[in-house]
Structure formats: structure tokens, C-alpha cells
Amino acid sequence: MPLFDLPLxxxxxxRSPRPEPAxxxxxxxxxxxxxxxxxxxxVVETHELALTAVEASxxxxxxxxxxxxxxxxxxxxxxxxxxxxxxxxxxxxxxxGTGSPxxxxxxxxxxxxxxxxxxxxxxxxxxxxGATGDHDGSRSPHVEGFLTKGVLxxxxxxxxxxxxxxxxxxxxxxxxxxxxxxxxxxAGTSQGGGIALAAAALxxxxxxxxxxxxxxxxxxxxxxxxxxxxxxxxxxxxxTHRARAEDALATLDYFDGVNFxxxxxxxxxxxxxxxxxxxxxSTVYAAHNAYAGPTRLEIYPYNEHEGGGIPQDELxxxxxxxxxxxxxxxxxx
Length: 333
Hints:
Layout (H helix, E strand, L loop, with lengths): L7 H6 L10 H13 L6 E4 L7 E9 L5 E9 L8 E7 L14 H4 L3 E5 L40 H18 L3 E11 L1 H12 L5 E5 L6 H7 L5 H10 L4 H8 L4 H5 L6 E6 L7 H10 L4 E6 L8 H16 L9
Parallel strand pairs: 4-5, 4-6, 6-7, 7-8, 8-9
Antiparallel strand pairs: 1-2, 2-3, 3-5
Helix pairs in contact: 2-4, 4-5
């Protein structure tokens, strides 16, 4: 994929021209109040996979509507790193699920605890399976799309439930054993990056955020410049429901990462790939340039949606170590 979006000098200064809803904060305050009316109901079950240097558990907590959300919780064993531990709440890419603890060993090996949250309804298409249904739709994961699910009603929109779940995941992680709630970060790539932005803005206690090639940002620009999935789902909807196109975009304004970015103040590590036609660079820059806290932006000029890959993962560990003061792991006996 060649360069297709704005030139880099224009991207550097690019901002979304679309105004945010006047009642954005009231909408989210009401959503979170409705969610917090339900007890968190955290349940932890040891994972049957025996690992020497890492402890792994299944975690269930009550998300939006009190509905159960599954996650995987991993932490280095006390013999490797003594607690309390900094913790990273990780959110998943589109269609992905939590899978196995073997998929998430990087951060625990570096001295972090991590809670990986299932995205409700997802995890039936990608390599890793999920275990959380969307109880306001179906009670088991299903193949996407999700982007237009309830898009004509902000109260019924799919990502209202997901973002509320993300806030509850942060609350859950802060309560888990051997975790230092004062050193908590959120992180994600693609859809996970968009969810991390929302969590950084909405949840209390977030001290750092990692936002890699984020999806769910500047929707109106995305449908103008890309026909790639998943934004193609929205494009097809707008083509079909011509008379309701502006209604759909008005709903999405309540879920736009650009608007969450302006309300997040924790230090953030962003990444963008300039040949990314899945999450176009201008949509990433719109969120980055709106971010209210200090940022670092890693630019990958020749990459598509894979972004920085393993080098970005390595940078993330070093960046999180600096911002969360992670102790050095000891060799297991």
C-alpha cells in the first residue's frame, strides 16, 4: 500500500473539524453511573495451565448492565518479582479474544501484572477465542461486524457497552491480588487502542496509556479515505441508509477517540503507520493531536496496519517501565 493520506507535514498539524456533542460528558457520566450501580462481583479462578515463572488466572467481573465479562490475569510469580506489581489492562483488536495465557507472556516476563479483557461478543474469528457474549445482543461470541450495531441510537450502540466494560476492567485490575493500583496503565492496538483511549479518559487511576494504530477515531474522516474493513462496515451502512447517514455519524461522535483524547491526561505512547489503510494516519493524528496529556508518537513510514510490530512491543515495555517504575525480574530458581 503506497502513501494515500495527507502528507506528513499536514498530518502533524491535523485536527478533526467535527465538533464534539455538547452533552458528551453528561452522556458518559450517566452511562458510568448506570454501570456502577451493579456490584463489580470479581471472581478469580486459577488457570489449569501450569507455568513456572508466571501465575495465570481466569477473571470474571460485572461490566455494563452487570453482565459478566471475562479476562485473563497474568503476573510474575513471587519467586521472580515480589509484589506489589504495576498492572497493565490490555484491550484487544477487532474480532480477537483472550485466548491462552501463552499469548500474553511478554509483560509478565518484564515484571508487570496484566489483565487482558475480552471484548464482548468478539473472539469467534481471530486466532484467539473469546469467552464473553454481548448480553444486549447474543450471549455468545459471533463473527463481526460490530461497528454499526445499534448505530442509530447512542444508548443502544455496541461500543457504549464495550467502553463501560473497559472502565470496569480498570476497576477490577486495581482490586486484584499483588497489584499496585497506583501504578496502572491501559494499552491496546487497533480496536484495543481505541478502547484504551476511552478508558484513559473515563476511568479513575490510569497512570499511563499505550495507544497503537488506534481504531474508532475520527469516523467521519475514515469513511472518506478508506474502504478497508472494518470501516467498510460503516461505509456500507451509510450507502444503504442514505437518509440516516448524519444520524449515524452523530451517534458515533459520542464514541470517537478524538473526543476521549481531549479528556485523557495520563502520559501516552502512540504509534501510527503511514501506509495503514485500516486505521488511516489522519484518524490517528486527529486523536494524538487532541490528546490532553503528554505524548510520545512513534511513526512507521513504510508499514501498514501491522504498525511497529515487535519493535513497538519492545519500546512499549521500556516506556511502561519508565512510567510505572517496574522492578527488575530475578531469575527463577
